[in-house]
Structures are given as C-alpha cells and as structure tokens.
Design a protein that fits this description.
- The protein is α/β, with parallel strands linked by helices.
- Helix content is about 40%, strand content about 20%.
- It has 23 helices and 21 strands.
- The protein has a seven-stranded parallel beta sheet, sandwiched between helices.
- Strand 20, helix 18 and strand 21 (about 585-590) form a beta-alpha-beta unit.
- Helix 19 (about 595-605) runs antiparallel to helix 20 (about 610-620).
- Mean pLDDT is about 90; it is low at about 625-635.
Length: about 700
C-alpha cells in the first residue's frame, strides 16, 4: 500500500485549482499525469522581473515591471492594426499594444484612470516607449507576485508559462515534510539541503546558477531519484538470486564435439564468459545474466555452447531474435552445427505457416526439438515446450522486460541469458540492467583487421562513386546506407529509392535495394543475391544495422552520417568486420556540421572500441537515446542527468547494496523512510514483490 503521506502527491491533476480536464490532457505531453509530476517538472531557465524603473529611465529591449496610470484607449482603424492603450507615470508616456485584441477584455483589465502594474519587454520606436502584449497586468496591491524572478518551464501546445507557474505553486503546497532517507554523513559531505528545501529552491531560483544541473539542490534531488532506482533494482536482484531454479550440469560431450569441429579456437574472453555462464547454470538458483560484447566478438558461439549444456541434460533451449533476418542468421550458424552434432534445431517465426508450423509446435511440445530459434512468435500462447530449461534473448533492448519474463515463464524455471551487440556504458548497465549479473566479451577473434574509417564531405560524392566502381570491378562487395530523414520512414524510403536509381546508372543490375517496407520474401531474395555475389552493391536503410552477415562485404558508405547516433554508426560499421579482409568505411557528411556531430564523426574515426563509443554516446546524447528504443528497459529520469550525475549513480549503487546487506527488510528508521522514497519515485513494484 502506498504510504498515506504520499496521497496528496498522487492525486489527479484536476485537484489543483483552475486546472481542468482539458489542461490535464495537454499536460500529459509533458509526462505530467498527477500532482507529483508537476512538482518534479523543473524550470529550464528564469526571467528576472525585478527591474522596476520609472518610464523615462527604462532601458529598451529589457524586461521591466512598471506601475502606470491608464490614460486613453485607441481602437484600430483597420483590423490589421493593433489596439493601443496610452499609459503614463509621472515621468513619461508609453503605448501598450495588443494585436488580434478583444476590446472588451482590454477595457476591463485596463480601465481608464486606474493604476496597473505591467510586466514585459519595453521597446522604443520613433522616440516613443512601447510594450506589446504585457506578460502580466495586475493591480498595484498584487505587484509583489509579479516583480520578482519568474521560473520558465518546458511547455507544450496549449499550456503557457503563466499557467504552469500558478499550478506548480499550488502543487508545491501539497508536498509533505518527509523524513530524511539519506545518510547524515553523506548529506554533510555533499552539502545537500533537505529534500523539501531543495525542491522549493529549484522552483524559486534567485540566480541562473541555482538551475545548474550541478547545483547542490539539483544534485540532491538527482541522488534521491538515482537511489530509488538502484534500491529497487537491488531488491529485485536479491529476489531473483533467491529464486530456486534447476541445476544444469551436462556431461560436456556435445560441447567437446563442437569444439573439435570448429575451425578456430575460442578467445580467452569467450572462455572466461563461458565459465561464468556455466557456473550460473550449475547453481541451484535461477540464472539471469546479460552477455555484452562488441560487433563480431563471437557471442553466438558462446550462447550455443551454453545451450548445448541444457541439451546434454535432456532439456530444451531457445534463442529469440528481434528480426527474421537475425533469426535466420542464427539458424545458418547454429542449425548447420546442430546437424553435425546430431541434435535437432528448428526455426519458428511469424512466417512459419500451415502444416510446417503445426508440425514444429507438436514436435516442440513432445520434446523432439532440442533447440528452437525464433522471433516474437515464440511468445504466442500456443507455443509449448516439453522442458525448456534455457532461453537466450538476443538484442535485449528490442524487447520489453515483460516479454523476457513471458518467455522464461514457458519453461520449467528456465535460466535466461540476455545478449546485446550494443556495448552498454556502465551507467546504463547500472540503471537499466541492475537486476542482472553481467559478462563482457572484450576481445575479437584473431585475424580480424581494423576498419579504415574516413570522414568526407558529401560534395566528394562523384569521386567516391568512381572509386567504389573500381573496387566493385575488382570483386569487392559494398553497402551503401541511406540517411535517416527526420525520423520519417516514408522519407527514408524515398531517399533510399532515389540513391538506388542514381547508382544504377553506374552499376547497372549489379546493385540491389533493401528497406524496411519491403516484404520479407523480397528482402530475403535481395540479401541472398548479395550473399552469393550476384549483386555487388547493396543500397539499404538501417534495416541492415543488426544481424546481416556477409563476410565478403568490405566497403560501407554511410550517407549523411551526421544524422546517426554513435551506437548506430558503430553497429552499421560492424557489418564489414565479419571477415578477415581489410575493409573501408566512409562517413559522408553535409554542411553545416554542428560541434556535436563533428565530435561523433571524429570518435568513429579514432576508435573501434564499442565500449568507449557507448560512453562517448552517453556524454554527447544523454541516456534516453543510447539503446535506440523506448522498450530498452532504461528508465528516463526526471531529475537526474546521467551524462552529468554519473558519480552520484555509482555512489547510489554502493549505497543501495549496503542498505540491502544491513537492513534487508527496510525496517530501521532510515529503512522506513526509504520505503517512502521508493513509492515517491514509483519504484513500488520492487516494494510489492519483495516486501509483500
């Protein structure tokens, strides 16, 4: 149950005076659904309205708050002209202008002979002081409410800053006096104010520095939010660790047979990770482990080896991929090896239909299939296993947490290995995957050559096409990746088709096109021709980002590379690191190039280390975009900024671990206060699962 102290903050927005249902709907665009969301909607800047000059001393172009007497109203002669009001103090006159005005409303607010306080930008035109559409018009006795610092909030259509200021003032009155949930010594070291004080100061800044992400007030609230996140994950992790699973201790025969057949030796990093996974499998508790590794580091073979452990125990294993292309690639790798080992492996996707589908489902339920490879189709209710003991989920960030749990629920206390080829910065590991153990393959197989990455302006396109033609004529295969256009699939598609048509003039029928809007059969046909070398140049959108495996492809050209994120550029470049030949990646950019874009392209030129690239991406773009999709499991923070507050996150992770070790039931005075913190930041799922 949510603590009673929080009830006011979890009230409906319409409980605030003057905030109706229509405005409540608009506020959803700002992620404000309840009173607490308004409280945590922090200002991004401020307007100083404390400049209160006499009119003759007013500086043009500056926001001023002036007290004036209303002298005259001048209605416009034509609709295109403004409605004017003449106002004065004892030093000078000023014209107050209103465009698209409602005369009755103006006459009511600015009656002739009355004194009013106006706040807005004063300008001088033809030696005449003017103020257009004052931000505030109040009576002199209300001047104190206007003539100070006004916080400026992020807005959405239909919501003004004046409205937000009014509602947030009321919302702040609903914040109760909370017990202190932070360690006293840490508060002193960090110079943190109490929670309530920090909140009030951020909403009532006196100086621009008060709104800085590193101000003591902002750091205090960021730490509270990060601690709630880390404590919730620590609670879930503790719970997962205590869940009994099954012990998978195979006899090693299939794995030995596989190693004897492989044309290469496992790297030291692969062997280390396999030991970690095997130890988890052999433990009596359920396994939940994240395996991360850079492009081409050999995660699939590690996953297959660990799946064979389950098969050796007489159980079944599953591997789930986010796209059909990737699922089929796994079938090519795992299927052929399975056949040689004498075990049965099948593919199940949304396109597996009719008798074939019915037969696979029947054989899976009867235990005749050892390993199943699939897409989302594996989640469907009619998919039943005889004994699923081990599930591998590839490219975890494409799936939600619920889907992960759904697949594991199909098994008999199945162990789960989650894989990602997008190296994840430590900060995101802690916040998005803190409920998992994690392993890292940080070594690429021997013989892989570094990619020669070049950054060039798009005006060198003719020269690049000529060089590419020479490469292709000498037997090379190449990708040409078309730009992202304002997040619009239709425009992306148009860009790809346009580039395809222009390249056909040079390469004739030796060029193919692949994009996300094509039917799977069409995509497969083009990919098959490219793999076989029937076409040498593949024009594509980012549909090739994950899972395309053509070792013979050694050239990649990425058009408008400045529009892509670092992680995405790294994934794309990885498509030409599949073989042992030297390869070239050309990043084409167009002017003007922002500092941020220039930095991204330079990092791509400098390094192929995916883990460094992921860290740089976090610093340049912030946490919300790193993993590429909203289903990443990564929670966007309202108060914390991971590119700035990394050190606070690491402290919060240690603090959370210490809390769980010393006060597992959260029953001490601080523990009880921490329960309130978990509910305040809506981490109560952890509270429910652990403390029910």
């Amino acid at each position: 149950m949510r603590p009673e102290i929080l009830f006011p903050l979890f009230s409906n927005l319409t409980s605030i005076g003057g905030l109706g249902e229509k405005s409540a709907q608009l506020l959803k665009n700002l992620d404000c659904n309840k009173v607490a969301d308004l409280v945590f909607h922090l200002p991004s800047s401020m307007i100083d309205r404390s400049y209160c000059p006499r009119l003759k001393d007013a500086r043009p172009g500056v926001i001023a708050t002036v007290t004036v007497k209303i002298i005259e109203h001048i209605a416009p002669a034509r609709k295109s002209q403004p409605y004017k009001v003449v106002a004065e103090d004892d030093t000078e006159q000023m014209i107050v202008s209103f465009f698209k005005a409602y005369p009755a409303s103006i006459q009511k607010n600015l009656p002739i002979g009355a004194y009013r306080v106006l706040s807005g930008k004063i300008e001088k035109f033809n030696n005449q002081l003017q103020m257009s559409h004052p931000d505030y018009i109040v009576r002199p006795e209300e001047a104190a409410a206007v003539s100070g610092i006004e916080p400026v909030y992020p807005l959405t259509a239909g919501i003004t800053n004046k409205m937000l200021n009014k509602w947030i003032k009321q919302a702040l009155q609903q914040v109760p006096q909370f017990p202190e949930w932070l360690d006293g010594q840490y508060i002193k070291e960090q110079n943190f104010p109490p929670f309530n004080q920090a909140l009030l100061q951020l909403h009532h800044p006196k100086y621009a520095a008060d709104l800085d992400v590193n101000s003591p007030e902002r750091r205090r609230l960021a730490y509270d939010e990060l601690l709630s996140n880390q404590l919730a994950l620590a609670i879930v992790r503790q719970k997962v660790k205590k869940q009994y699973g099954r012990e998978l201790k195979g006899n090693g025969l299939l794995r030995k047979k596989l190693l004897d057949k492989l044309p290469f030796k496992l790297t030291g990093a692969q062997e280390k990770v396999l030991k970690e996974i095997n130890a988890d499998q052999a433990s009596p508790y359920r396994m939940l482990r994240l395996l991360q590794g850079d492009v081409g580091c050999g995660k699939t073979i590690v996953a297959f080896m660990s799946m064979l452990n389950a098969v050796e125990c007489g159980a079944q294993a599953a591997i789930m991929a986010p796209t059909e292309i990737l699922a089929k690639q796994h079938l090519e790798t795992i299927g052929s090896l399975s056949e040689e080992l004498g075990i049965r492996c099948e593919l199940l996707t949304g396109r597996t239909k009719g008798k074939k589908r019915a037969q696979i489902l029947e054989d899976l339920a009867e235990g005749k299939i050892d390993i199943i490879i699939g897409t989302h189709a594996l989640f469907q209710e009619n998919v039943e296993f005889k004994d699923l003991a081990y599930a591998v989920i590839d490219e975890q960030h494409r799936f939600g947490v619920h889907q992960r749990l759904n697949l594991s629920g199909k098994g008999n206390k199945a162990d789960i290995l989650v894989m990602t080829a997008t190296p994840i910065p430590r900060t995101l590991l802690l916040t998005a995957y803190g409920d998992m153990e994690y392993s890292k393959i940080d070594q690429v197989p021997e013989g892989r050559q570094p990619v020669d990455t070049r950054v060039m302006p798009v005006d060198r396109l003719p020269e690049i096409v000529s060089a590419l033609k020479r490469k292709v004529e000498s037997g090379a295969r190449a990708y040409w990746v078309c730009p992202l256009v304002e997040e619009s699939e239709k425009l992306d598609l148009a860009a790809a088709e346009e580039r395809f048509e222009s390249l056909k003039k040079y390469f004739g029928n030796n060029v193919g096109l692949i994009h996300g809007k094509m039917k799977e059969t069409e995509k497969d046909a083009v990919m098959e021709r490219f793999k076989k070398g029937e076409i040498s140049l593949l024009v594509a959108t980012t549909v090739i980002e994950v899972g395309v495996n053509v070792p013979e492809a050694t050239v990649m050209i990425i058009e408008h590379a400045e529009r892509f994120g670092l992680a995405q550029l790294h994934q794309l470049r990885g498509r030409i690191k599949r073989g042992c030949q030297a390869s070239t990646c050309i990043l084409l950019y167009s002017y003007p190039l922002s500092e941020n874009s220039r930095a991204r392209l330079n990092i791509m030129k400098e390094t192929e280390d995916g883990f460094r690239i992921a860290e740089e991406d976090l610093d340049l773009r912030g946490g919300g975009e790193i993993l590429g999709t909203k289903q990443s499991g990564f929670n966007a923070f309202k108060l914390a900024d991971l590119s700035v507050h990394k050190n606070l996150l690491l402290t919060a992770a240690r603090d959370a671990q210490l809390i769980i070790e010393t006060d597992p039931e959260l029953s001490s005075p601080r523990g009880k206060a921490l329960r309130i913190l978990l509910y305040l930041f809506e981490r109560d799922d952890a509270v429910k699962t652990y403390m029910a």
